[in-house]
Amino acid sequence: MYANRRNGDHSPAHVHSHRTPPADPAHAAAVVPAEVNILAQRLAMLDAIRGTPRPFEIEAKPPTASAGAGAAAAPDAIFRSAHSVRSRAVDPGTMSWHEMQSPLPEESAAYLAALLGNDVVTADHGGGGCYATVLCDGLHVAGVTQTEHGRDPSWNTFVRVPSVDLVCHIALAKGGSVRVEPSGILGLDRRAVIADPTGAALTIIAGGDDRRTVGAGAIGWDELRSIEPMESVRFWCAVFKWTASPILTARDTQGMVFLNGGHPVASVQAATRNETASRWLPIATVRRDLLDATVHKAIRLGARIVVPPHVHPVLGKLAIFTDPAGVEIALGSGPITNIAAA
Questions:
Q1: Which CATH number do you get for residue 187?
Q2: What does the pLDDT look like over 181-222, one tens digit per residue?
Q3: How far out from the chain centre does Cα 297 lie?
Q4: What CA–CA distances, in Å, run from 267 to 104, 188, 236, 250, 277?
Q5: Number of domain units in the chain
């Protein structure tokens, strides 16, 4: 899990280069019902990935003569060459890690890695469970684990705090909720899950990672998509001692940037009609000139569009879709220069 990744426990691990093949039909009668369901899910996902692209129009420029046939013949090489990741120190009040929870964790990890031109390693944890880590140029980007029984696919975003228990008390006092009570060792790896009054949740952790990978090819930004932006802003600023700066070009969506000690850490915007719930979205970032091509690639691999590509005040352009396993993925170009530099 998260603690094992933080402590460098990646063994036994291997880089994925293929998906699990379908089970032998000769043994189908011996498979228990739960395994039949898992097999059916995996086959359905593979069918979705192999399927034809869904109708969706994006303005795309034809390749230049210099890019030419090489770009069409080796798209993965282009995405890899566009990586510009770096490891950055994480201060209290800053996002430190992102964890995807999927009904098909290995497939979702492979999907995200394929989308960004990254790699995947998995570590077995016994009992048939595993933890997958998406890597970009050897740096940790995100973790992927199995969804808990009865829960929808989602992302789990971690924020470092000095005291988990104190932040939980503040969250309750400010009208929020504690979805998962504090657990773990004080000062080492203690954590809890808190939510604002609109339902957007974050995992707070004392200890944990003190560095984060950002840049093109990584989870380079975070955004709160809220059904009541001002209520969310009031809550999170009170809990983390953040300040919020309005985005003048995003008044119609109530866009603001959260600042931690004057440094930008995330943005908030009003959810669209297609978004029925408030939630924190980790945003995978790519080079600006590759965003439309990456969205096309996502659709070819079986994505379902939630929010079509649109102009974004911080990222230039943003799109939101779900992978074939139902996990929501946000894709944007890198944060504007004065945001990224902060």
A1: 3.10.180.10
A2: 999 887 678 999 999 999 999 999 997 667 888 888 999 999
A3: 17
A4: 29, 29, 12, 11, 17
A5: 1
